[in-house]
Amino acid sequence: MTAADLLQRFRALGGVADNVQLRQGPHGWGLFVVDPEQSVRVFTPAHLLITPQDLRLSGDGQVRVRPQATLALEFRSALVSFHEAYQREVGWGAGGWERSLHHHHQQRQALPATLQPYLALLGGQPDTGLAPTLEQAFQAHCVSRQIGVEGRSYLMPVLELINHAPDGAAYVVDQGIGLTGRFTDEVLACYRRQMDAFHFFFNYHFVSQARVVLSGLVTIDLPGLGVLHIARDDARVDHHQGVPVPQVTVRSGQIHLSFVVLADLDAPARPREVFVRLMLAQGLPTARGHELFDGLVAHHRQVLQAFIQACEATARTEGGLVSQLQHVAQGQLTNLVHSPWH
After folding, report:
1. Which pLDDT belongs to residue 49?
2. CA-CA distance, 205 to 95, in Å (whole number)?
3. Which residues are CB-contacts of 253 (< 8 A; sequence separation ≥ 6)?
4. Residue 101 pLDDT
5. What percent of the chain has a predicted confidence (pLDDT) above 70?
6. Residue 168 pLDDT > 90
7. 64-93: pLDDT as tens digits
8. Which residues contact 258 (CB under 8 A, 6 or more apart)?
């Protein structure tokens, strides 16, 4: 099946792919403008979205739609055929297993032991030394391509092939997921504007600028209050007056924050305000909350500086992944140091 055939089937099922062509580019498969003088519109309607849980791997490693998958009845047969062809031609079947095993796993295995403790603090998955199973690799592949809509994760055929740029167009969620804009060559989207650069790297496996810096994993004894545990799970989020805030769990003298933002270039004062307010609700006086926040910032700066030094000591011999991780850390340190309120 050619790329043009795949787009034709996508359109026949209600998808929109105006003024674009699907082809290989510098980042693999992507969408490219046909006429730069005209606007681009790409739209994956709700009935073409599919959850990763509705897909499975067959014995020969191919992606199949589960019989119990929730699909629009009037299109079911055509949708099953389309999703399986799509995964075979430009999704998992187009090198997903090879990327997971030969690129991500083998590069991670080659990292020096001196970097492993830092990666654990910064959100990297523990290195078990074992190659991922086929199922684990497929799940990781889906994580790098899915989007959250009303608390559920979906794969969005064709639209997911648009590559990332920090200044790329924004997705619009309305009875499906779409993107519009004017582009000179490749169509580019901004995957996640509010995402820590290490999380972005671990999810998508490439370096990108970030607007947000999260604290590393931290445990602090607060006399009279208990033990404060800070994680890096920014998917566990609540909202206060429209502002995203970490989830707080208190039990047996333990205070758990799902994450703590230390710097946000789009809302410089917000990280401190949110943290101080959350800790005040746990009985920590405001002045002490400010001191604790300053301590977290100072600690994270030290972690990033030490990590950069550890990378520098091995980058010349290891190269590749180490250099990328160093670049991520340097960008995060710059955001932290140059935050207006520091």
Report:
1. 94
2. 15
3. 226, 227
4. 59
5. 91
6. no
7. 999 988 888 788 899 999 999 999 888 888
8. 231, 233, 234, 236, 237, 246, 247, 248, 249
Q: Nearest 10 degrees: CA dihedral of 29, 35, 39, 40?
A: -20
- Beta bridge pairs of residue 219: 229
* Burial class of residue 190 in the structure, from the number of CB atoms within 10 Å of its CB (0-12 exposed, 13-18 middle, 19+ buried): middle
Q: What is the largest CA-CA distance in the chain?
A: 66
Identify the three-state secondary structure at position 233.
coil
User: Do strands 163-169 and 188-189 pair parallel, antiparallel, or not at all (unpaired)?
Assistant: parallel
Question: Model confidence over 321-337: pLDDT tens digits?
Answer: 888 899 999 999 999 88
Query: CA geometry: angle at 331 spanning 30 and 101, to 5°?
Result: 50
* Residue positions counted in the chain: 342
**Angle between helix 3-12 and 76-89 (nearest 10):** 150
| 326 close to 311: Cβ distance less than 8 angstroms | yes
Query: Which candidate, 195, 171, 288, places its Cα nearest to that of 244?
Result: 195
Alpha carbons within 13 angstroms on the beta-carbon side of residue 256 total 12
The dihedral built from the CA positions of residue 43, 46, 48 and 53, taken in this order, carries a sign that is positive
The pLDDT confidence band at residue 27, using thresholds 50, 70 and 90, is confident
Please state the separation of Cα 329 from the chain's center in Å.
16
Which among 332, 166, 185, 326 is positioned nearest to 264, based on CA atoms?
332
Q: How far is CA 253 from CA 116, 222, 278, 292, 338, in A?
A: 30, 10, 16, 18, 35
As given in the structure block, the two tokens for residue 150 are 């009303």
Statement: the pTM of the whole predicted model exceeds 0.85: no
At residue 105, the pLDDT reads: 60
Return the residue matching tokens 């619009």. Answer: 172
Cβ atoms of 245 and 237 closer than 8 Å: yes
